[in-house]
Amino acid sequence: MISSRIATALVASNGPTVLPKVLPKGAALAVSALVAVGLAACAPPQKGAAGGETDTGVKVAEARSAADFGGMDKLVEAAKAEGELNVIALPPDWANYGELIKVFSDKYGIKVDSALPNASSQEEINSAHQQQGKSTAPDVFDMGQSVALANTPMFAPYKVATFDDIPEKFKDPQGTWVNDYGGYMSIGFDSTKVPPITSVDDLLKPEYQGKVALNGDPTQAGAAFAGVVMVAVSQGGSADDIAPGVKFFAKLNEVGNFLPLDPTPATIESGQTPVVIDWNYLNGTESKKVPGWQVMVPHEALVAGYYFQAINKDAPHPAAARLWQEFLFSDEGQNLFAKGGVRPVRADQMIMAGTADRAAFGQLPIIDGPVTVVTQAQTDTANKYLADNWAKAIG
């Protein structure tokens, strides 16, 4: 409920589905100008540096695996030589990114510059364009399906050491993008300020006048997009037909219950947004801060989504970017995701291998029921419908 992200896709299972339990969400590098022109003209590229080559003769920015560096130790060495990593749109409370960043930085001695933590997925791409060629450009992206798949030419293919451990449906075959974690849409509410919410239809009741907030604009924000899909499903629609969801929000606005304010931890804790439609793991973080805050995942309208991880092909710190990917998809990184209440993409494999953190994975109970999965084609159709109708519905 912090960051605006574009909608994603979680592949549904015919059997039980694991749901995160929340029920009771830089500084520029200095470059010396005092280099002799003659030396600069004939000096070879620095090994492991941005624009240079790895020990195997592969350009760092084109390395497709740790093997291209000569092994993981060489990748670590190259990343440490760069000394910095630029991330973007990673709120500390989102999927435990605060701890992930700290652990990575402490582990490798690499400074992590976190820019625009509340940015949307599209803003990540916009920033990459605006900062292209600068040391402040984002090295990596964490974004929703629609934006990710629309911008794959900007990504550098890379396969982490655990790549084969990731199901095919959660990755591009060349490693251009890989899903990292997922969750479910939910309704969070402050039970000390509003009556308990047991269904989406409850939101139309007069008790919720001026109290129902959606995490962002669904034409740009992933949580908001998925929120509209969730509501559509609850009203007899589907991922193929989100019109019922938009009509519901139009009615919500008409009766005065819709609150056009992007929720944040501050607005929730102050009571400004007592009802929030957002990912379950983001709503879940407020349970620890707001007495009476509860999270309800509508079982009649389960909508799930994964986020996409990718490397900027023009990353100013290409080795650090690749090491970050290795970290996120390692057992350590995946367990830290689970600690944040999200389902890591390697969850099933780690459970079978016995490498899952029992305490963290203990938050992921088994949930039975049909899950709505938004495909890219459905996302494209829904986005067009939203572009044509959302503003009119809530304007």
3D structure, described in words:
With 395 residues, the chain is an alpha/beta fold. It has 14 helices and twelve strands. Strands 4, 5, 6, 7, 8, 9, 10 and 12 form an eight-stranded mixed β-sheet that branches. Helix 3 (97-108) links the parallel strand 2 and strand 3 (111-115). Helix 7 (243-254) packs parallel to helix 14. The two termini are 22 Å apart. It comes from Mycolicibacterium frederiksbergense. This is Spermidine/putrescine transport system substrate-binding protein. Keywords: Signal.
Count of individual helical segments: 14
Return Rg in Å.
Answer: 22 Å
Major sheet details: 8 strands, mixed
- The ordered string of helix (H) and strand (E) elements is EHHEHEHEHEEHHHEHEEHHEHHEEH
Unreliable spans? 1-49
- Tell me what portion of residues adopts beta-strand conformation: 5-15%
- Would you report the number of β strands? 12
Structural class: alpha/beta
- In angstroms, what separates the terminal alpha carbons? 22 Å
The residue-averaged pLDDT reads 87
Proportion of residues in helical segments: 25-40%
Keywords: Signal
Organism: Mycolicibacterium frederiksbergense
Protein name: Spermidine/putrescine transport system substrate-binding protein
Pfam families: SBP_bac_6 (PF13343)
